[in-house]
Design a protein that fits this description.
The chain has 302 residues and is an alpha/beta fold. The protein contains 10 helices and 12 strands. The protein folds into 3 domains: 3-85, Orthogonal Bundle (Arc Repressor Mutant, subunit A); 92-161 and 267-301, D-Maltodextrin-Binding Protein, domain 2 (3-Layer(aba) Sandwich); 163-265, 3-Layer(aba) Sandwich (D-Maltodextrin-Binding Protein, domain 2). Strands 3, 4, 5, 6, 7, 10, 11 and 12 form an 8-stranded mixed beta sheet that branches. Helix 1 (3-15) crosses helix 2 (18-25) and helix 1 (3-15) packs across helix 3 (29-43). It starts with a helix and ends with a helix.
Length: 302
């Protein structure tokens, strides 16, 4: 049996009239009659009782109609959803980004995109993860677009640099170094140090930068992201070398510029170059690239 046969059957069963079914389906009565006869032959039961001037459903026909109708309705709903997802102006975009940027940048970027009339029906689905999880999710096709940090190229992913984020040493407000404006990284060695957890996107970068100036910190605690590190530093548990984000403004910590080198990390927009990217996601990616080209990205950081 075919979807076409089932559709013809349901229309005739609903109208109980071949002529009206023919008019609704825009095909000949004979085509409908042959299709239903073939369906009855395949099922091995009569679906309609045919009389000279009317037709009616047999008990088999009623049962079949009751079972088939919701299936066709579900299929119609699914098809509508698939068409919407494939639409350039009505689809969903699954985005993953790591917590440091959740304080404003990514949501503001998405909101500005939606302000454009042609994009207002697009739906964003947001997920906050650390950078390695964002990268893994993009590779597996769980997300369309990701925002993350990484210190090297990632196979299969296209990485588009958005901006460089300053990195600095942070200390508690009452720390002996709190009155300083800048610091050499070696000066943090005597103090308890709070490090990014192993699966954090910045762990490797921080370790590399510390090693480059022969600094071996006294690691006392590990934390998953900037927010957790900031909280520990604010509470006096130690010092840290981190990416500077908006969350720092809310806590009692001092930010010290690093004198050893220009310390920064890069935020990338990433997407899987080897997987299908929905039209709405392509539209969003192109929008971000255009904003970058026009020098507008910095405005979303504030």
């Amino acid at each position: 049996m075919t979807l076409q046969q089932l559709t013809y059957f349901c229309v005739v069963a609903r109208l109980l009239n071949f002529r009206k079914a023919s008019e609704e389906l825009l095909i000949s009565q004979s085509t409908i009659s042959i299709s239903i006869s073939n369906l009855e032959t395949e099922l091995g039961v009569p679906l309609f009782k045919r009389e000279k001037r009317s037709i009616s459903l047999t008990k088999y026909g009623r049962l079949y109609y009751e079972q088939i109708t919701p299936l066709l309705d579900s299929l119609t709903t699914i098809n509508i959803k698939m068409k919407r997802l494939a639409s350039e102006t009505e689809g969903d975009i699954n985005i993953a980004y790591n917590p440091p940027w959740s304080y404003g940048f990514v949501p503001r970027l998405a909101r500005e995109f939606l302000r454009r009339k042609e994009n207002e029906k697009i739906i964003f689905n947001f997920k906050q993860l650390n950078s390695p999880q964002v990268i893994a999710g993009l590779k597996e096709g769980l997300f369309d677009v990701g925002f993350c940090t990484t210190e090297k190229e990632v196979p299969d992913l296209s990485l588009f640099p958005l901006f460089c984020q300053e990195m600095a040493v942070i200390v508690p407000a009452d720390h002996p170094l709190a009155e300083r404006e800048s610091i050499c990284l070696r000066e943090i060695e005597p103090y308890p140090y709070i490090l990014y957890e192993d699966d954090s996107g910045l762990r490797r970068l921080v370790e590399h930068l510390l090693k480059s100036v022969d600094v071996v910190p006294r690691v006392a605690y590990e934390a998953p992201d900037e927010e957790a590190i900031f909280s520990l530093v604010s509470a006096g548990f130690g010092v840290a070398f981190v990416a500077v984000t908006d969350a720092l403004k809310k806590l009692s910590v001092r930010t010290l510029r690093v004198e050893d080198f220009d310390a920064h990390c890069t935020l990338y927009m990433a997407y899987n170059a080897n997987r299908y990217l929905p039209p709405a996601a392509v539209r969003f990616v192109n929008y971000i690239k255009l904003c970058s080209k026009q020098g507008l990205i910095a405005g979303f950081k504030r």
